[in-house]
Amino acid sequence: MATAAIESDSVTPYPVDPFDVSRPELYRDDQWQAPFRELRATSPVHYVAHSDFGPYWSISSYKPIVAVESLPDLYSSQAGGITIADFIEERGDVKMPMFIAMDRPKHTGQRRTVAPAFTPSEMVRLSDTIRSRTAEILDGLDWNTPFDWVDRVSVELTTQMLAILFDFPWEDRRKLTFWSDWAGDIEMVKTAEHRAQRLQHMYECGGYFQNLWNQKVGKEPTPDLISMMIHSDAMAEMDQMEFLGNLILLIVGGNDTTRNTMSAVAYGLDLFPDSRAKLEADPGLIHNAVQEIVRWQTPLAHMRRTATVDSELEGQRIAAGDKLILWYISANRDESVFEDADSILVDRPNARRHLAFGHGIHRCVGARLAELQVSVLLEEMAKRRMRVNVIGAPERVAACFVHGYRKLPVEISRY
What we know:
The chain has a 5-stranded mixed β-sheet. It has a 3-stranded antiparallel β-sheet with strand order 4-12-9. A hairpin with a 2-residue loop joins strand 6 (311-313) and strand 7. Helix 10 packs parallel to helix 14. By secondary structure, it is an alpha+beta fold. It is globular and about 55 Å long. The chain has 14 helices and 12 strands.
């Protein structure tokens, strides 16, 4: 069943499938909930024969997603990559290997290389820096005055953190946001023009980081990701494309996940004022609220696996080579696991069961850091009795991979 994706710059030769949940307008217009709700109820493992990304199996419920993630040898990350977009050599696609899109044993070695940057002891070491920078940004905001929360808070906090993790030149840190936006937007693969632009920006990213790498070669180890790569057996000898692929992984993973959860702190709590009031009255709920907001937002909507052999999943026959799209965004609204799943409940007892960070060997290596950053943001807002009031419709990312916000107009007031 696995075939090449159809180019979007050609005429679509098939009617729109209402259960093709890869369509960008569903996410741009925040209309993805209804089709997923029906898929979970009627066809949790559903075959989509035609889409702009080619045919795929849509896995929309919690249980089968966990089943697939628990069998990484049967359902490969490496065979087809981790997004719904296919690698098509004939159209000039360039392979950029990254450890999240590798199978064992290579995945294991490379993940272990960067994992020390996200240990509990590192979180303790970074916490003061995260808190002071969060306080500085919040103290720089004007009360009762409109501004864009995404740019002033979410982007700036995550970009600063990335710059610290990479020991990246501070004055150029917004380049990280720019590269992340281009790398994470899978809609870019649909036209030759955008593919070429994207590749150019990725090469610029690689060239910049290669200079940073060269400056650290032969130097004593330092607690940043580039130095960790240089001083490891698993990643010291990466070729240029593998280096670039892993950079893109760490930039997008470190940027989009946290950035869009921080935006959901503002948007989601405004949308559910009863939960916001409960959190304002009891800051002890903050750590649970972080898990709940991550669940509700699900900043990366899906991951992809490719079947290595013929198999069966929830009664459906999966052929070797078939593409399976694991819709975390849907599993986190699965009513059989999360009661009143479309609402934010800051005291939800099982909020931590969410799949927004994945499951199994590929679970997000930086999850602790994301949780720390969002927790500190909520704690510092609570100290200032800061309430974020949304004053206009958000501008959302029009894509089915990164589930996030481009802009969010707000004002802040005291409660």
